[in-house]
Task: inverse folding
């Protein structure tokens, strides 16, 4: 059914927009409610410098001696966090000092294929690596005498911030808004004490996220130490030889499969632990169920696009699995599920998958390849110790999320109280 919203021309004076999507009933109600608030201010009056974006320099080639700088795009921004592990890089020589993100800069996505990409906001923290952004991310430096950047980050991620960004965005080939439009955001300017309270909640959440990362890192470190793989670096040779009998035995003739580093890695693995194939721990190799909704405790494994990511469902999921994900039933009497997931996600799984792909990540991981993935089996006590660290990491991450949601609720309730006045 078509939705119709009728707006008088006199009511859009100064908006300078005639596209229908700007005048959805929900957007009009949002704008009307925010303008009721006496302490509302436009972001443009609360910044220390004009909102800007990053850019893509002409010279992006990275040479051996170049200093690599994280290059952040929309996919690297999520709610409140920045994914540095999957970022691209730029050479430092192609950048100037003004390009770099600074401590307390607030970053927000302003361009994307659909609404959900718009409005992902995160603050740049002092322990983050050197980074720059592309043109699809706005960078905001607040006047901290007026607007606390941590409070702004929480506000932008609240429904009142996110929906404003959706309202201000325009749909052409994709959804986007300009830096000047970002400056039109209406910000409820609560007193310094309230903003500080929100900052404290946000910082506590960030601290817990770092603790969760540390716990997971400890688990991975313990795994690699027990397998004498700590510090292992894959070294790819330009030339090497392999016997014909070996090639025939594995039914492979592509040169990349026989890189010496793979045999060196597997040799070290077998020297320090018993090895078993993944299929030995699967209770029936499951076909993906149509419209299957994952249950808590399910062992999920990706097989396409980005194969080899293992995850154990920790909380109820409102949704169904894609065809690229397998749900495996693991024999927990034989192996700890968290330990198994870590093995697959670590260098142990990654190098084996890389080898199967001929030196690059395979787009599709066949069932036979999955079943033959080799898993090192450590003593049960060690598996439990590793599993405990991973579970602590998940619990800590959950507490971080709870604090983050508490901060958002406080901001939203405060805004709703002002609207009702």
Result:
């Amino acid at each position: 059914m078509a939705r119709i919203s009728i707006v008088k021309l006199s009511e859009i004076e100064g908006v300078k927009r005639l596209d229908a999507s700007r005048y959805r009933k929900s957007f009009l109600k949002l704008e009307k409610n925010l303008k009721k608030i006496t302490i509302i201010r436009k972001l443009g009056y609360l910044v220390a410098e004009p909102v800007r974006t990053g850019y893509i320099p002409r010279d992006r080639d990275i040479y051996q001696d170049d200093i690599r700088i994280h290059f952040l795009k929309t996919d690297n921004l999520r709610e409140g966090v920045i994914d540095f592990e999957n970022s691209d890089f730029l050479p430092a020589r192609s950048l100037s000092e003004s390009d770099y993100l600074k401590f307390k800069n607030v970053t927000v996505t302003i361009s994307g294929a659909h609404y959900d990409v718009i409005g992902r906001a995160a603050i740049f923290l002092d322990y983050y690596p050197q980074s720059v952004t592309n043109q699809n991310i706005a960078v905001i430096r607040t006047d901290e005498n007026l607007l606390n950047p941590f409070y702004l980050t929480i506000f932008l991620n609240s429904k009142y911030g996110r929906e404003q960004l959706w309202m201000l965005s325009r749909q052409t080939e994709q959804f986007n808004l300009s830096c000047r439009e970002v400056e039109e955001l209406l910000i409820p300017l609560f007193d310094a004490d309230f903003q500080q309270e929100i900052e404290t909640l946000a910082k506590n959440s960030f601290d817990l996220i770092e603790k969760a990362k540390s716990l997971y890192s400890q688990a991975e470190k313990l795994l690699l130490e027990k397998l004498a793989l700590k510090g292992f670096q894959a070294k790819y040779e330009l030339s090497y030889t392999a016997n014909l009998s070996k090639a025939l035995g594995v039914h492979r003739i592509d040169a990349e499969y026989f890189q010496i580093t793979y045999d060196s890695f597997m040799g070290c693995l077998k020297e320090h632990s018993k090895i078993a194939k993944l299929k030995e721990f699967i209770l029936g190799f499951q076909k993906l169920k149509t419209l299957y909704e994952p249950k808590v405790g399910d062992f999920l494994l990706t097989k396409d696009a980005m194969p080899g990511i293992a995850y154990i469902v920790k909380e109820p999921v409102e949704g169904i699995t894609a065809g690229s994900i397998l749900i495996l039933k693991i024999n927990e009497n034989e192996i700890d599920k968290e330990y198994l997931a870590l093995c697959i996600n670590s260098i142990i799984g990654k190098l084996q998958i890389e080898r199967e792909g001929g030196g690059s990540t395979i787009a599709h991981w066949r069932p036979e390849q999955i079943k033959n993935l080799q898993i090192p089996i450590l003593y049960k006590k060690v598996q439990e110790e590793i599993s405990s660290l991973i579970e602590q990491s998940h619990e800590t991450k959950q507490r971080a999320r709870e604090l983050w949601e508490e901060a958002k609720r406080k901001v939203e309730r405060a805004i709703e109280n002002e609207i009702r006045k």
User: Anything to note?
Assistant: The longest strand covers residues 68-72. Residues 110 and 163 are 13 Å apart (CA to CA). The chain has three domains: 17-189, 191-214+380-421, 228-377. The two ends are 36 Å apart (CA to CA).
